[in-house]
Amino acid sequence: MAYGELDPSSGVPLYRQIKEILRREIAEGIVDPRRPMTEAQLLSRFDVSRAPIRQALQELASEGYVYRKQGKGTFPVTGARVQRPADVRSGALYQYLSDSGLHPTGKVSGIERAEPPARIRDLLGLEAHERLLHFTRLISVEDQPLVEADVYIRAPEDFSPTAAELEEQGSAFELLAKEFGIMPVRAEHEAWATAATAEQAATFGVTEGSPLLVIETIFYTTGDLPAGWRSAVHQAENFKYRFTTSR
Description:
The chain is of the alpha+beta class. The chain has 8 helices and 10 strands.
């Protein structure tokens, strides 16, 4: 089933409307990945000039939803594709996905107060036997698992959110800020590629040994105090992480 018709009176540029219709069809596997998406076909379908068609295809290509074969045309890449811009703050991925119209869902499990492993304790400079809030979060886009995060947060003992609260908010730090005024002011990241274990393969629906992207983050609050640690494993082929550097 194809999605939607254009609404010239909505105030939304035509190329954005076309892009969103095509993006949803691609992400949900409605289109045939073996058939090119030609300008002629799209001109006939949407009854617009070439400019919005070309702009929509250009943005879909830059975000990984389509690719061009020399001399053969533009082809859809089925499945969700997520490009995270550099200005999305740490802990706000879920909100970014939602604002982008990607309809994310989150499942939180394993909420507990626990002593972190020695390596994490050393990274955060914790006292011996200090217990942190610990949980895992699985974020999916278009019903496809995208990110699985293992999280430890240094928070007051009476900060005890439920799974439903964490799923609704999308970020434990947002809840922590509302209840206690504690919010990270910066974060340090390390990223590397890894091969999916049997357990990770089952989570992401890929074959064992498939490439995954790991991003490990340490969060800091005012005064440069370590506030938490997160290891986020990403479905590599569906996720791009854009960053900037300055001199």
